[in-house]
Structures are given as structure tokens and as C-alpha cells.
């Protein structure tokens, strides 16, 4: 009996220690808003959309402390169309993230479907976290995540952190000739200052390519926190105008979410057209719950083909509770004669304009919604 009691006590102690060293968390958010978009063509649309600030999602993440400064970590995350209850990507169960990794004294190593560093620095780009109608960076399109990705991030030393990614080409059969997607990022933080670079590069398929330009996305940023808020400066250069255009700027180059693959054929002549993006933004906290902000941005078509745009935005966030935020934004954008950019949020609005109603047109947009995190 004594031996059994000792064994049971040891088992209970082991289980308690294991539970103390590891945990699994269920998390997510709902973000729904009423959006109104009007074109200078006279067309307009109103809709209930998902994800002005954060795409609605359900996620699972866990950490196991295995001792000696080492932890095993994982994240599984699925996007949701909260306005309809459907999955954001019906071809995937965990379309947003699906990775496992090890955190060590030397840094963190991850493998699987991961967010890009360009996506992760959204909070350093403008006061809207680079997700609303008003952000010109969001309008242009952001490389967000890729499959089969290996990454390494250093510990933060003297305020600086380096991150590297390598998304495997997995060549073979009909996919031979594909090349990897490379990423490099450097983020520096010191007191009220934050600055850095996040970039991506991918070569076209060596078998099918007729346009030899690599896809690039280079993004630099600098922020300063003053007494009441933050000032944001950002610039980018890219030839990958694909994500949110549905008119003259639409191309099929390197998909921003790795669907159906990480790679591109190199047959789209738009890959030879490069854009420079510039944006300035600032916010101000009126009190502990209310924050307001504004931004102005430009998409410059360096080819001289009048395929750029410029726009501005004002908005506010009101923290109703610790987990719930109300928000509202007013935005405007002017496409040049040969540009066809259109508004987007964290998720592409299900109610949007396209084609002749955006090509060369002046767009205005309003968003009012609620974000709840759990």
C-alpha cells in the first residue's frame, strides 16, 4: 500500500510539473464592420464585411518548457469570414499559420506555414496597423505568408533583432524550375525609437519565364513615440502589384498568401513595372480609451505609365473594454489614369467595387465596426 501511495504521489507530482512547464491556448478574434465605398463613376456599395483591423480567426498555440533554456512552440491559426461563418480559405484548415519551432538561447527556429516579416511589422508602418481602407501599403498588397518555410530569428541584442526565412521550392515533376522565396528583416528598438527593414525576393521559374525580373518587396520604416502618440514613416519598393487590384494594376506574379504555390511562372509583363510607396502617419491618445490618427500616402509608378495612386485617411479607436474596441475610418484614394487600385482591409471586403468603377477613379470609403479578442 505504501509503495502504491508513493507511486501515485510521484505520478501526481510529475503531472503537475508537466502542466506547469507546458500550456496550450485557444485564442482568436471577431472583427466585423459596415463598409461604404463610392466611386467618382457614381457607383457605390454598402456591405457587412469581415476584418477591417484584424481578420477574424481561431487559433491554437502552445509552449512546452523542456529545460536548459529550450522551449518547443507551435501555432495553428484559421481565418474565418465572420459575416457568413465560412472559412477564409476553403482549401485549407489552418490557412493563416501552421508551424512548429524551438526557442533556444541562440534564437528561435520555426518550420511550416508562417507569416512574413513584412506582414508582422504592420504595427510599425502606420497607426492603422497597415490594414484599413486608408493604408496605401495595404492597398498595394502585402506579402503575408508562405508554405514550406524555414525561419530563424536571433535574440534581441542591444535593441536589434535579425530574422531570416527560406521557403523551399520543392521542385519536381511539373513544378521543376521553381526557386525559393527568401526573406530578411532587421528590427531595432531603443526607447521611443523603432526602425528597420523587411524584404522579400523570389526568382521566376527558370523553365517557363519570359519576363526575367525577380519579384522584390523592400520595406523600410522609422517610428518615434512622443508624449501623446507615435509618428510613423514608411517607404517600400516592389514590382508585385497583385493583391487588392481588380483593374488595370492586376497581375498574377507572386501570390501574397502562397496559393496555390509559393512560386510564379515569370510570364506576366507586370513584373517589369516597379512602384515606390511612401507614407506618413501619426496618432494621438486623447485619453486612456480614445485614440485618433491620420495618414497620407503615395503609390508611384516608376515606369512613367500613370499607374499610381495617392490617398489619405482619418480614424479613431475607442476601447470599450479590455477585449473590445469600436473603430471608425474615413478614407479617400485617387487612381491615376492608368491605375486600378481599390480599397482593402485586413481581409478583402466582400462588398467592393471593381473594373470600370476603379480604373482611373477617385474612391471614398467609410468603415465603422467592432473588434473583439478572446
Quick overview of this protein structure:
With 374 residues, the chain is mainly β.
Q: What can you see in these coordinates?
A:
It is a single chain. By secondary structure, the protein is mainly beta. It has one domain (29-373): Porin, CATH 2.40.160.10. It is built from three helices and 18 strands. A hairpin with a 4-residue loop joins strand 14 (275-285) and strand 15 (290-301). The N and C termini lie far apart (46 Å). It is found in: Cell outer membrane. It is a multi-pass membrane protein. One of its GO terms (molecular function) is porin activity.
Total helices: the number is 3
Percent helix, as a range, is under 10%
Mean pLDDT over the full residue set: 91
CATH architecture: Beta Barrel
Q: Would you count the extended β strands for me?
A: 18
Sheet with most strands: strand arrangement: 1-3-4-6-7-8-9-10-11-12-13-14-15-16-17-18
Strand residue content? over 45%
CATH topology term: Porin
Provide the number of structural domains.
Answer: 1
Subunit structure: Homotrimer.
GO molecular function: porin activity
Signal peptide: 1-20
Subcellular location: Cell outer membrane
Topology, please?
Elements: H1 2-21, E1 22-39, E2 44-50, E3 57-67, E4 70-81, E5 86-87, E6 97-104, E7 107-115, H2 117-120, H3 136-140, E8 145-153, E9 160-167, E10 181-190, E11 193-202, E12 215-226, E13 229-238, E14 275-285, E15 290-301, E16 309-319, E17 324-335, E18 362-373
Antiparallel strand pairs: 1-2, 1-3, 1-18, 3-4, 4-5, 4-6, 6-7, 7-8, 8-9, 9-10, 10-11, 11-12, 12-13, 13-14, 14-15, 15-16, 16-17, 17-18
Amino acid at each position: 500500500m505504501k509503495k502504491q501511495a508513493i507511486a501515485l504521489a510521484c505520478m501526481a507530482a510529475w503531472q503537475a510539473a508537466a502542466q506547469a512547464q507546458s500550456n496550450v491556448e485557444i485564442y482568436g478574434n471577431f472583427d466585423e464592420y459596415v463598409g461604404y465605398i463610392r466611386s467618382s463613376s457614381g457607383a457605390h456599395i454598402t456591405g457587412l464585411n469581415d476584418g477591417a483591423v484584424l481578420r477574424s480567426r481561431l487559433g491554437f498555440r502552445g509552449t512546452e518548457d523542456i529545460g536548459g533554456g529550450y522551449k518547443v512552440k507551435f501555432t495553428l491559426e484559421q481565418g474565418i469570414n465572420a459575416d457568413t461563418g465560412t472559412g477564409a480559405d476553403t482549401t485549407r484548415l489552418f490557412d493563416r499559420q501552421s508551424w512548429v519551432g524551438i526557442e533556444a538561447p541562440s534564437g528561435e527556429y520555426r518550420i511550416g506555414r508562417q507569416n512574413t516579416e513584412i506582414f508582422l511589422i504592420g504595427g510599425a508602418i502606420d497607426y492603422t496597423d497597415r490594414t484599413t481602407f486608408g493604408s496605401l501599403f495595404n492597398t498595394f498588397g502585402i506579402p503575408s505568408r508562405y508554405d514550406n518555410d524555414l525561419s530563424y530569428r536571433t535574440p534581441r541584442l542591444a535593441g536589434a533583432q535579425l530574422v531570416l526565412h527560406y521557403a523551399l521550392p520543392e521542385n519536381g515533376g511539373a513544378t521543376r524550375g521553381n526557386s525559393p522565396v527568401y526573406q530578411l528583416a532587421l528590427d531595432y528598438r531603443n526607447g521611443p525609437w523603432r526602425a528597420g527593414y523587411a524584404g522579400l525576393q523570389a526568382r521566376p521559374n527558370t523553365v517557363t519565364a519570359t519576363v526575367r525580373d525577380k519579384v522584390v518587396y523592400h520595406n523600410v520604416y522609422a517610428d518615434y513615440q512622443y508624449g501623446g502618440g507615435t509618428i510613423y514613416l514608411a517607404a517600400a519598393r516592389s514590382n508585385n502589384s497583385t493583391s487588392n487590384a481588380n483593374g488595370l494594376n492586376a497581375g498574377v506574379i507572386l501570390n501574397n498568401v502562397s496559393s496555390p504555390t509559393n512560386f510564379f511562372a515569370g510570364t506576366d509583363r507586370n513584373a517589369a513595372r516597379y512602384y515606390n510607396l511612401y507614407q506618413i502617419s501619426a496618432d494621438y491618445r486623447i485619453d486612456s480609451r480614445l485614440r485618433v490618427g491620420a495618414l497620407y500616402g503615395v503609390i508611384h509608378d516608376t515606369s512613367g505609365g500613370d499607374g499610381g495612386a495617392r490617398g489619405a485617411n482619418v480614424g479613431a479607436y475607442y476601447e470599450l473594454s479590455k477585449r473590445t474596441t469600436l473603430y471608425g475610418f474615413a478614407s479617400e484614394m485617387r487612381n491615376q489614369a492608368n491605375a486600378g487600385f481599390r480599397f482593402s482591409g485586413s481581409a478583402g471586403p466582400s462588398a467592393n467595387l471593381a473594373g470600370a468603377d476603379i480604373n482611373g477613379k477617385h474612391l471614398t470609403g467609410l468603415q465603422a465596426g467592432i473588434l473583439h479578442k478572446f
